[in-house]
Design brief:
Largest sheet: 7 strands, mixed
Structural class: alpha+beta
Number of strands: 10
Strand content: 25-35%
CATH class: Alpha Beta
CATH topology: Alpha-Beta Plaits
Radius of gyration: 17 Å
Number of domains: 1
Order of helices and strands: EHEEHEEHEEEHHHEE
Number of helices: 6
CATH architecture: 2-Layer Sandwich
């Protein structure tokens, strides 16, 4: 299983629209590649329908290949639909990938006594793939208050294991952010991609890849 995050970082609303369009494009790619995709988390932007970030779980034979194609800086070339007279036409979002197994390695250092687990009912996007029973798990790191919810797997035990791994990964990322500019390096934020580092480029309102 691969975990993929698409984020507008601190970009304007046009970047949040780009995340929404990128997600739609990604879902089509997953369908064509027979890759199962689940939405683990999403952060909405101020404008309804747009997304500040999404965290996805990709599973299947082609999951790694699909996920890697979205890793790095992503460029959208389009006149702003919100500010028609705005001179900027280049908008950037970030994609980051990590293997759920690698996240599990990070979880080995997480103190079990600091984590509280709750069984909750699965909900939200996912269609027929979402298990409607109480197998979903919310894991909370009590000292920090950081919480994640996982409903990808069919069993509560599997969801608990993935939730712990995801929580450990987030804690490690936060610690790295506090110590240095690792977050900027990891997500290749706007200052970096504007120097021509985009791994994929899309054009127009149709979000067509160049």
């Amino acid at each position: 299983m691969m975990l993929l995050q698409l984020t507008a970082n601190t970009g304007p609303e046009e970047c949040c629209l780009a995340v929404r369009k990128a997600l739609e494009h990604l879902l089509r790619e997953c369908e064509e590649a027979c890759v199962r995709v689940e939405l683990l988390e999403q952060a909405d932007s101020e404008r309804q329908g747009n997304l500040r970030s999404v965290l996805l779980a990709l599973e299947g034979e082609g999951a790694t290949a699909v996920a890697r194609r979205w890793s790095g800086s992503l460029q959208w070339i389009c006149t702003s639909p919100y500010r028609p007279r705005h001179g900027r036409k280049n908008w950037y979002i970030g994609g980051a990938v990590f293997d759920a197994g690698e996240a599990g390695d990070a979880a080995a250092d997480l103190d079990d006594g600091d984590v509280r687990y709750e069984a909750v009912r699965a909900s939200g996007p996912g269609g027929q793939h979402v298990n409607k029973t109480d197998s979903a798990v919310r894991a909370t790191h009590v000292p920090s208050g950081l919480s994640v919810k996982v409903q990808t797997e069919r069993s509560q035990h599997a969801n608990k294991r993935l939730a712990r791994a995801l929580l450990a990964h987030k804690l490690a990322t936060l610690a790295s952010d506090a110590a240095s500019a690792a977050r900027r390096q990891r997500w290749r934020q706007h200052q970096g991609v504007e120097r021509g580092n985009a791994v994929r480029t899309f054009r127009g309102q149709g979000f067509v890849e160049r």
